[in-house]
Amino acid sequence: MSNPLLLQLAVGALIGLGAGYIGSFMILRRMSLVGDALSHVALPGIAIAFLLKINPFIGAFAALFVAIIGIWALDKKTELPSETLVGILFTSSLAIGLLITPEPELLEALFGDISKIGIADLWTTIILVATIILLMRKISKPVMLGVISKDLTRSMKIPLNKINFIFLFLVSIVVALGLKVAGTLLMGSLVIIPAAAAKNISINLSRYNLLAGFFGIISAVAGILIAHQYGLQPGPLVVLSGGTIFLLTLLFKK
Amino acid sequence: MQEVLKVENLSVEFNDHQVIKDLNFSVNKGDVLAIVGPNGAGKSVLFRALLGLIPYFGNINWAPNIKVSYVPQRFNIDREIPLSVAEFFKFKTTNNEKIINALREVGLSDPQHDDFHLKEHVLKQRLGWLSGGQMQRVLIAWAMLDNPDVLLFDEPTSGIDIGGEETIYNLLKKLNEDHKMTILLISHELNIVYKYATSVMCINKEMICYGAPNEVLDPAALAKLYGGHASFYKHDHHHE
Fold it and tell me: ipTM of the assembly?
């Protein structure tokens, strides 16, 4: 695949699929805000990776991993919404990231730049997205039961804390992957918007999961194509394509 | 009578705040025990302790190999979840026949209607779109799939639909009789307690009364349980 546009489309579509699918569970768990704020945490990780001259994906993932452990611990400790704390911690880390990211890389880190990917990225993306989807399918039953009733799920001796951790781990991988497409500022919407659109027009779970993944693919492909056509940044256009799909689904809301 | 549950000196504390204090009671096989008390009296906390979901002091002893199923309050379920009733059941079993039988048993289908009716109007429906009574029946049917020995039933706070509630309790009574199932239920309707429960336990953090409903639910116990309002209203009414 030597054609850079085809390569971008393939990687973008895969990330859209993974983000949409994982996002469909995040929305049901009322993690929309967390998803959005979580992506900001990646910035200091990327900055440190740049400074140490290692792969920014590794840096982003490391920072996200620390963040999900924090969310997991909070979630385990209390039933109360921890949104305020998450909001404060995560925007603070965005601020730190802004200060320490080298100037030339800042724009790319903030908004993503999928035009800079290579064939190795395609393989990494295929493997990671396939892993995410397979693992998510395996834990989707307890995750959904947890959404319906935590007490009911725990009364069935399902280890909900462990399941939550695996789930958050998958979220951190998908967010780290998506940084290439949408950057630390916009990645959250890549997870949330396709799922929110799918929720508008779904009665059952299988259709909802499927549509969320599908809308993720469509947003990514449409955004990258429009950006390519007009010489614009793909990241914002991917998000806006998702927003347009969301508005269209509102017309058919169930 | 075979004892299925024995609770001794049960106390629960949240952050040094005592929520349940020194409860002692036991439940025999086939009993219907109603737990009554004002809001915040610790009724749901008691259930969570019995299910082993929260830390507690004292002893909770279930008989060996007892299967306990829990029916949560229907109001705690988000109506916006895109999940069909069929998918909800598939979380527990893929055996369609078992699902249909369970739904029949809780009265969501009658012999006049064929399976098609059940599939189209119940199973394909979004879980959150069911009426309150239907949702409760679905939750009971779901719990019944495990063939439990004991059912913990947490009733919604207010009796919006008295007729519907009566039939839910008729259903519980039927399950109790047909399967010799032991039932622990949290209730807010005293008339329902009189009619269906074999024993009642009034709690307001600590035990206020415990025994057969028509023996222990006297005005003095109710006044102590609900803070004396019952007699106050009676008096007021008398003067009008």
Answer: 0.85
> Where do runs of H (alpha helix) occur along chain A?
4-28, 32-52, 56-77, 83-100, 103-111, 119-148, 150-155, 160-200, 205-230, 234-251
Structure tokens at A90: 């995560």
pLDDT in tens, A45-56: 999 998 898 888
Asked whether the beta carbons of A222 and A170 are under 8 A apart, the reply is: no
Chain A: nearest CA to B64, how far in angstroms? Answer: 16
- Residues spanned by the domain of A108: 4-251
Kindly give the pairing relationship between strand B182-186 and strand B32-36: parallel
pTM for the full predicted model: 0.87
Note the CATH number of domain B1-67+148-214: 3.40.50.300
Mean pLDDT, chain A, rounded, equals 89
Q: Judge: B91–A203 Cβ closer than 8 Å, yes or no.
A: no
DSSP, residue by residue, A88-126 = HHHHHHHHHHHHHS-HHHHHHHHH--GGG--HHHHHHHH
Residue B232 to chain A, least CA–CA distance (Å) = 38
Contact yes or no for B84 and A149 at CB 8 A: no
Number of separate domains in chain A: 1
Q: B189 in the Ramachandran plot: left (φ > 0), alpha (ψ -120 to 50) or beta?
A: beta
Is the Cβ pair A204, B81 closer than 8 Å?
Answer: no
Domain map (residue ranges) of chain B: 1-67+148-214, 78-146
Taking contacts as CB-CB distances below 8 angstroms, the residues of chain A near B125 are 203
The angle subtended at Cα B15 by Cα B22 and Cα B200, nearest 5°, is 30
Those residues with Cβ within 8 angstroms of residue A34's Cβ, 6 or more apart along the chain or in another chain: A26, A71, A83, A86
| CATH label of the domain that carries residue A201 | 1.10.3470.10
